Amino acid sequence: MSEEAYVICALSDIPSQKARGFHLGIVNEKGEPESFPLVVVRWGKNVFGYRNKCPHHGVHLDWESGSFLDDSGQRLLCGKHGSLFEIGTGRCSSGPCKGEHLEKVRLEVIDGDICVLGLTLIEDENA
């Protein structure tokens, strides 16, 4: 049995070397609906996904809405306390949570769409 992949956007919706946030509705382990903030970073044809939640205090990385990357555009930045995270691994390289990791979310590009795997999304019945 194959794992379900849910399309969240087209690859072309996120420019290379940029990040975009999403708010997904998921079904958690208890079978209950839950809000799931997600950040997706595109680097060429590669995409990286993480729960939009800093391991330091649990706040969203984009303290300013949609602002995920540091000034160099090379690392994810927590706008609250300045922690910096490696894009490819989610590992904190600097800041109050140094050595900790963002929670990775499995993504795959399928037919030009960015799809999330490993989560059960609440699908919009009106779509």
Automatic annotation (TrEMBL):
<keyword id="KW-0223">Dioxygenase</keyword>
<keyword id="KW-0001">2Fe-2S</keyword>
<keyword id="KW-0560">Oxidoreductase</keyword>
<dbReference type="InterPro" id="IPR017941">
    <property type="entry name" value="Rieske_2Fe-2S"/>
</dbReference>
<dbReference type="GO" id="GO:0046872">
    <property type="term" value="F:metal ion binding"/>
</dbReference>
<keyword id="KW-0479">Metal-binding</keyword>
<dbReference type="GO" id="GO:0051537">
    <property type="term" value="F:2 iron, 2 sulfur cluster binding"/>
</dbReference>
<feature type="domain" description="Rieske">
    <location>
        <begin position="6"/>
        <end position="116"/>
    </location>
</feature>
<keyword id="KW-0408">Iron</keyword>
<dbReference type="GO" id="GO:0051213">
    <property type="term" value="F:dioxygenase activity"/>
</dbReference>
<dbReference type="InterPro" id="IPR036922">
    <property type="entry name" value="Rieske_2Fe-2S_sf"/>
</dbReference>
<dbReference type="Pfam" id="PF00355">
    <property type="entry name" value="Rieske"/>
</dbReference>
<keyword id="KW-0411">Iron-sulfur</keyword>
<protein>
    <submittedName>
        <fullName>Ferredoxin subunit of nitrite reductase or a ring-hydroxylating dioxygenase</fullName>
    </submittedName>
</protein>
